UniProtKB/TrEMBL annotation:
Protein name, per record: Class I SAM-dependent methyltransferase
Key word Transferase present: yes
Family annotation (PANTHER family): METHYLTRANSFERASE (PTHR43464), UBIQUINONE BIOSYNTHESIS O-METHYLTRANSFERASE, MITOCHONDRIAL (PTHR43464:SF19)
GO molecular function, one term: methyltransferase activity
Domain of life, per lineage: Bacteria
Lineage per the UniProt record: Bacteria, Bacillati, Actinomycetota, Actinomycetes, Kitasatosporales
Residues forming coiled coils: none
The enzyme's E.C. designation: 2.1.-.-
Amino acid sequence: MNRLPSPASGSPSLREEILAYYERGGEDTRLTEGAGRLEFWRTQELLRRFLPDTPARVLDVGGGTGVHAAWLAGDGHEVEVVDPVPMHVERAGLLPGVTARLGDARALPAEDTAYDVVLLLGPLYHLPERPERVRALAEARRAVRPGGVVVAATINRYAGLNDMLRQGNYFLPERRARTDAVSADGRHLPSADDPDFTTAYFADPAEVPGEFDAAGLACEGQYGVEGVAWLMGDVDEWLDDPERREAVLAATRHIESEPSLLGTSGHVLTVGRRV
């Protein structure tokens, strides 16, 4: 495993409850089983569309255990994972062709203009304050070369409400009250009544381009990852069938940038460039 030094003292630190959530180990299987596969496959196909030809130097910030780094390296890219969770760094660093190190998206242990692509496929989830999100995007801009690509994922503002309805948990009064509060301002706080996630920010897709602009990045497009398919009760079975899976993926492509439907997706990828 290739592990480089962690950021210097004084760098931002991960909140304890977020670290505890990820130390449960759910990132190993979240995108490889059940409905999570839709998010994985769609993220993969979108990234392949926007990444430069191989070999590109890719910095995967908040890359977890390397679920995306693995196939990126397999495609021939040179991939480095930076993540604040030691367990994630250890596992990602075992992947062939992947280098992993401890680090925070708001203070990247990275040289200026060193990468062709910087991915933020998770860090913005856990930065409730706009200045922190802009800081992380500005760090990505610093690390990417002029003309390079920055791709950031956000959780949609009403993803929690839609998911609670899908699961039936919205009919529990305590869950409904918390879900409605998140829908109002995007701020999700951990609670024993809501154990499925931790401190997070659920973004209005319309606000993200402004944060890119504030960080000095030119926004080039936004793409709904799962569309509406993730809300369908039979999606797990559809994804098991190769023919139906391709139909679901094709349908999601059709609406991926439709403004009136962008917020129905669970996640949105925003693509920007350092110009």
